[in-house]
Amino acid sequence: MRTANCQSIKESVLAHLTGCTSVERSGDLCIITLPVQTVDDRLVDVFVEMRNQDFYLVHDAGKAANELILRGLNITASMHRHYAQLAQRMGVQWADEMFQSGCKSSAIAATAMAVAQCSSIATMDLMSLNNEPEEEGYRQQFGSALRTWSRSRASVKSQIPVKGEWRQHTFDFVAYPKHGMPIAINVISPAGSAIGAADRAAFRYKDLAGTTYDTWKKVLVQTHAETWSKASSELLGKCSSLVIPINTGEHPTPTMIENYFKQMAA
């Protein structure tokens, strides 16, 4: 391979990493978003707090642990041991359900990367949820029906990342009509905890308020709709423009989507 080609690849890689990296201030905190992806489709945020002159606490604010808990996974004693061993391997600590370490300013970048890697690897435990193949099936079915509905009406793209005030989110699908605002769609499941799934949807809705995506229409596709509690379903209604309930064994169709979208437009 020619050296010139290697240089262009290097420049491309650096441009990608730079585009996925940001540092923002929030009160007394610096929040670093790094190009380290988790299995729940987000980039890791690392928090930096100044504690003393040239001494900083770098941590993930317990986000890895929170994601596990919100999905209905209890952090067991063996998981605590695993995370502690992982942190030790990366040169940081697992304490108070956070990956963290103190360091001087010269080591912030390296420490932040180590914390981010730990936070990302910890989310691998989400893969233990045994409903994922089924829910992915719902997502694929809805995507197929949506694309059939969209012919001559809108263009459809999938897995669209968007940046909120606090963290990155992903829309499963976004339909871009020829006229009108984009329609952002997420297929959600009650797996683990229905109220936890509703809380995550509500957080995404609030986190995107005031951003470019605030004016987009938000649609939530509620799988296994008959199993959701009344409180969880009501919360979904408050944080979306439209909820499409799909009961167990029911399959989304273009006609179903058309009818529900007409309700949203009314």
What does this structure look like?
It is a single chain. Helix 3 (77-90) packs antiparallel against helix 4, helix 5 (132-150) packs across helix 8 (254-265) and helix 6 (194-207) runs parallel beside helix 7. 41% of the residues lie in helices and 29% in strands. It has a six-stranded antiparallel beta sheet. Strands 7-8-9-10-11 form a five-stranded mixed beta sheet, with helices on both faces. It is an alpha+beta fold. The mean pLDDT is 88. It has eight helices and eleven strands. Strand 1 (22-26) and strand 2 form a beta hairpin. The radius of gyration is 21 Å and the shape is globular.
Quick structural overview:
This protein has a 6-stranded antiparallel β-sheet. It has helices at 3-19, 63-70, 77-90, 108-122, 132-150, 194-207, 230-238, 254-265, and strands at residues 22-26, 29-37, 43-52, 55-59, 93-95, 98-103, 154-163, 168-177, 183-188, 217-223, 242-246. Helix 3 (77-90) runs antiparallel to helix 4, helix 5 crosses helix 8 (254-265) and helix 6 (194-207) packs parallel to helix 7 (230-238).
Approximately how much beta-strand content do the residues carry? Answer: 25-35%
Shape annotation = globular
Topology, number of strands: 11
Instruction: Report the major sheet.
Output: 6 strands, antiparallel
From the structure above, extract its key features.
single chain, alpha+beta, 6-stranded antiparallel beta sheet, 5-stranded mixed beta sheet, 8 helices
Layout of helices and strands:
Layout: H1 3-19, E1 22-26, E2 29-37, E3 43-52, E4 55-59, H2 63-70, H3 77-90, E5 93-95, E6 98-103, H4 108-122, H5 132-150, E7 154-163, E8 168-177, E9 183-188, H6 194-207, E10 217-223, H7 230-238, E11 242-246, H8 254-265
